[in-house]
Amino acid sequence: MNILEKIIADKYLEVAERKSLVPVKLLEGSVFFEGKVVSMKKYVTNPEKSGIIAEFKRKSPSKGVINGSASVEKVSIGYMQAGASALSILTDTEYFGGSSDDLKAARKFNFCPIIRKDFIVDEYQILEAKSMGADCILLIAAALEPAKLKSLASFAKGLGLEILMEVHDGAELERSLCDDLDLVGVNNRNLKTFEVSVDTSLALVDQIPGNFVKVSESGISDPNTMIELKKAGFDGFLIGENFMKSSRPEQAAYNFIKEFKKLSAQESELSKA
Ligand SMILES: O=P(O)(O)OC[C@@H](O)[C@@H](O)c1c[nH]c2ccccc12
């Protein structure tokens, strides 16, 4: 069993347990349930912003503990002040050290799109996402049968949520593309082997139809790489570890975005010349 298969197997058990403890009616009673969704698609493509979806992640199966002491309040506010377009909050506890409380805290302190980063295998988790105040969910093509991915996407759409579908190769992209998706992400990290390469994004970008917002995910640690990915056609950049490994993730994001803006300005000067 590879790590993704293990996480997914555990996720089914975890969701079954929560389902038996927290009834859907209670989720639907949350103040956020009727709340308006802030569009990830719009924020990520807004030229005034960086396109960065900044992630709050305490640990991961590939890296172990990344940051054991960061405050979600401080970091999420700081990310947005630094110029991020949106937030990604891990809610998986066992493998990533996150929780629904992290997402609720981020929601409380920020008016911006927030994606619930988790391994969604059941409609119940989409209701949970809405009840926490999320605007967008992640669906991982490598973890879901195409028919199931499509029905989960349509369920999320029905609640007004946006959907980021994550793929890792052309075959996943082809079999799982559907109209209900808003953003398509290419994960540079293979969730089965943990290998990371931005070439994965560069190789797939032209296969993503133009009506979807294109996001490159994982392993981005240099503003020059972001410039390269942007030139290739990406609108969004999901960055976690490179910020979270710092004792002040919000400061790391600020420095990164400042450098990115400087490089972008130089690029556009060059293209004018
Ligand atoms: O920390 P990184 O290398 O910047 O990557 C962020 C994000 O892409 C990564 O956390 C991620 C991408 N897809 C996922 C699916 C589940 C959990 C986590 C992820």
Automatic annotation (TrEMBL):
The keyword Lyase applies. The keyword Amino-acid biosynthesis applies. Residues 4-252 form the Indole-3-glycerol phosphate synthase domain. It catalyses: 1-(2-carboxyphenylamino)-1-deoxy-D-ribulose 5-phosphate + H(+) = (1S,2R)-1-C-(indol-3-yl)glycerol 3-phosphate + CO2 + H2O. CDD domains: IGPS. It is an enzyme of class 4 (lyase). Keywords: Amino-acid biosynthesis, Aromatic amino acid biosynthesis, Decarboxylase, Lyase, Tryptophan biosynthesis. It holds the Pfam family IGPS. Its EC number is 4.1.1.48. Pathway: Amino-acid biosynthesis; L-tryptophan biosynthesis; L-tryptophan from chorismate: step 4/5. Belongs to the TrpC family. PANTHER family: INDOLE-3-GLYCEROL-PHOSPHATE SYNTHASE, TRYPTOPHAN BIOSYNTHESIS PROTEIN. NCBIfam families: PRK00278.2-4 (NF001377). This is Indole-3-glycerol phosphate synthase. The gene is trpC.
